[in-house]
Structures are given as C-alpha cells and as structure tokens.
Amino acid sequence: MSRDLPPLNALRAFEAVARLDGVSRAAAELHVTHGAVSRQLRALEEALGTALFVRQGRGLALTPAGRRLHAAAETAFEPLRATWAELRRRPAQAPLVLGCPGSVLARWMIPRLDRLGRELPDLRLHLAASETAPDPALTGLDAALLIAAPPWPREWRVHELAPERIGPVLGPRFPAFDRLRTAAPRALLDFELLHTASRPQAWPDWAAAVGLPTGRLRLGTGFAHLYYLLEAAVAGLGVAIAPQPLVAQDLAAGRLHAPWGFVETAGRWILCEPRRRGDPRVARLAAWLREALAGDAP
C-alpha cells in the first residue's frame, strides 16, 4: 500500500486558503506572495489530477474533492499547531520534574532549596520522592538525583556529581557515646548496628574499607528508609551509617558525630536524564549540585 503524502508545502498553502477563505489572507499568514500561494494550489491540483477550488463570484469555493481534503488537512494541522505551541511554551513554563529518594529530599535537597532558588532563580523544580529506583525510561521524570553505582542504564545521560562517602554516626544521647567517640573502629564489633534495607551493603563496604572483618558485624534494628535510620541515631538508639552529605548539617550542629570519618565507595552521586531529550536545564542543575556537594565535603 502506498504511503505517499501530498506535497506538504502545497498542502499547507491549501489548508490556509480554505481556512481563511482567501488567497490574500493565506499569503499574509504564510508570509509569502499572493502568486506563491496560487502556484502552490496549482501544483497540488496537478499532483491530484482534479480541481480543489472553483471560482464563485469574486472568491473561491471548495469542490467536493477540496472539501474532503480540507477536512483531512484540518484534522492533521490543528493538533499539530496545538502541540507545537505547547512544546514551545513548555521549557519556560513547565517545572523540571526531579525525582530523588525521600531521604535525599528531606535531608539534603529541601534544606538547600532556598539557596538553589537564589542562585538559579529561573529554574522551577517539581520534586518527586520515591524509595524505588527509577526505571530506565525515567517515566514521569525529567531527571533523577541518585546515589548509585555503575553500570547505569544506557538510556540515561549521566552527570556524575561526587563520589559517595559513607561512615558510622551516633548521637550524644547514645549510652555508649563517650566510650565510642574516642575508641578505634574495632569497638563497633561489640554493638548491634542500626541499618537500612535500602543499603544492605553499607556496613560491609565500610568495614572492608577500614580493615574490619565483615563477618563479625552484628546488625540490629533495621529501618525501611535512611531518613528513619538517621532519626533513630539522633535519638540515641544506636550507631547508624550514612552518606556524608546527608548528615553534614547534623554533624555541624552536634546532633550527630562521626568519630571514624567517612570512606569512599564505588557509588556516585549522579544526576541522570533520558538520553533522548537533552534538556539544557539539567546540565545547569548538575553544575549547581556538583558545587553544592563539593561544599559539603569535609
């Protein structure tokens, strides 16, 4: 079956003449001469092999073939005009939908939104929290701020922001706080450790990095989300482990302490976007995030 289309420039001229009821008005809308529109109409009629307009008084009237073609062209062009207008408005008007884990949103992103608004005043964000990893298509998102280890889906364009650095933290309300804050890391083997289901490898990764036997770790109370884990540590319920940027403000305020510092893992802070889109706002946000994370580094 043939998939040929009519000459598109000629079809555009024809649709304008039929809609505006005149060659002169169509020429004005298309920013061409009266003669150019007339030539396009003749070309379309010659390609079709039949007349599309007939003279009626001082104007033109559609023939039966012209009415059919106009109905089809109108059905095609009107949604196209509406979609084009929406897409042209969207970069300036629609917010950038940014997904991130709830703990990153609550403990890192929200405290910095005021600064982000001052430094990138024309960037409107809509923040979407999720504790599940986004799918490769980043459905419903323009970008996602994540802590993840490569490899990443090939459908993503990934902006690396900073290495992930994790370490144990505890609050002054923990009964063994005074003992632990001056002890060697091995002292943690005597305690049940708070942990989170979202990062089961965090404690083993840290232990291996500092030379502790991972098999000697004793995992105690677990939490579904990192946010709750850190609230438990602040409340003095035990020793937790966390990415350094997420506890930077707690450390500065003395709500948490990190006696053994932080170690780098294979993970990275990344901002990812669908590779097929290339939204320029994402690159600007990545540069801002990179600078903000560097400012959090000890």
TrEMBL record:
Which PROSITE patterns does the annotation name?
HTH_LYSR
Its Gene Ontology biological processes? Answer: DNA-templated transcription
InterPro entries in the record, alphabetically? Answer: LysR-type_TF_proteobact-type, LysR_HTH_N, LysR_subst-bd, WH-like_DNA-bd_sf, WH_DNA-bd_sf
Q: Which UniProt keywords apply?
A: DNA-binding, Transcription, Transcription regulation
Q: Please provide, alphabetically and separated by semicolons, the GO molecular function terms listed in this UniProt record.
A: DNA-binding transcription factor activity; sequence-specific DNA binding
Q: Where is the HTH lysR-type domain?
A: 6-63
Annotated Pfam families: HTH_1, LysR_substrate
The UniProt family comment states:
Belongs to the LysR transcriptional regulatory family.
Q: What is this protein called?
A: Transcriptional regulator
Source species of the chain: Vulcaniibacterium tengchongense
